[in-house]
Specification:
The chain is built from twelve helices and no strands. It is an all-alpha fold.
């Protein structure tokens, strides 16, 4: 079996080496991402030329520069990051605890399964309306919206990771009376780490949308509040500038931080197995 695998690897390496350099570059992941970005930019130019109410890239950059000059960007972005960070941190802690309980205990799974499914089915815009109604304006409603939007995704991923642990290994550790902390450290944790990272990734992306909607409808300050300000003023260039800033941040965070963290988490899990 090992000989077959080695031969396949060798043939794959030979094919890769025989492929011209220019072709490898054109078919690489970087080229695909660059092509996607250029395609989106050209599409944006066409749409802005056809529809007068759609601001073009030049206008958006100008409006964003004006916001930086007014000193609006860093303060409002800092407010949003604070609300978002607290909400995601709470979602991560509660999600891991409840997910582990659901993965290890049938009773816990029966108790939490329906509330988690309900949480997954409710969109962030509904949570934002409810939290504004419950808590009014301020920091609480965006934090709670982020938490309620993100926590089901952490729970589902962690529970799936725990349930993926071999039942035979769990039964064996119980039979031989392995201490609970050691079971968690050497058996459960390596299996769950990758799923926790994936759950946090989903929580960050979904929670980022949640905090924007909560600030849009009930925030005092923040990125969503500032985007709503320009939208209500019929200044769509300013509105689009904040949307581009909002989307750009989460894309950079996902590519540079979350993607690498997940890859390392899965590698650590495989090495610990």
């Amino acid at each position: 079996m090992s000989t077959v695998i080695e031969n396949r690897r060798r043939s794959t390496t030979e094919i890769a080496e025989s492929t011209p350099e220019w072709k490898r570059r054109l078919t690489s992941d970087t080229a695909a991402r660059l092509t996607a970005g250029i395609s989106f930019f050209l599409f944006w130019l066409v749409v802005a030329a056809v529809f007068t109410r759609v601001p073009g890239p030049v206008e958006v950059v100008q409006r964003l520069g004006d916001e930086f000059a007014r000193g609006e960007v860093f303060g409002n972005f800092g407010v949003t990051l604070y609300r978002f960070g607290v909400g995601v941190a709470l979602a991560t802690v509660f999600g891991i605890v409840i997910g582990v309980m659901m993965g290890l205990s049938k009773l816990s799974r029966a108790f939490f399964e329906s509330p988690v499914l309900v949480g997954l089915s409710i969109p962030a815009i509904i949570w934002s309306f409810l939290t504004v109604m419950w808590f009014g304006f301020g920091d609480t409603s965006p934090i709670v919206t982020t938490f309620l939007t993100a926590v089901p995704f952490v729970i589902i991923n962690v529970a799936q990771g725990v349930r993926g642990v071999s039942r035979d290994l769990r039964d064996m550790s119980s039979t031989y009376q392995v201490p609970l902390l050691r079971r968690m450290r050497d058996l459960v944790l390596p299996a769950v780490t990758g799923y926790v990272a994936a759950g946090i990734r989903f929580a960050v992306i979904i929670g980022w949308n949640g905090v924007l909607l909560a600030e849009w409808f009930g925030g005092s300050g923040g990125v969503g509040y500032r985007a709503r300000f320009w939208y209500d003023a019929n200044r769509y260039g300013g509105f689009a500038a904040w949307v581009v800033l909002f989307v750009g941040f989460i894309v950079i965070l996902d590519r540079l931080v979350l993607d690498r963290a997940i890859s390392r988490a899965f590698r650590w899990r495989d090495n610990s197995a």
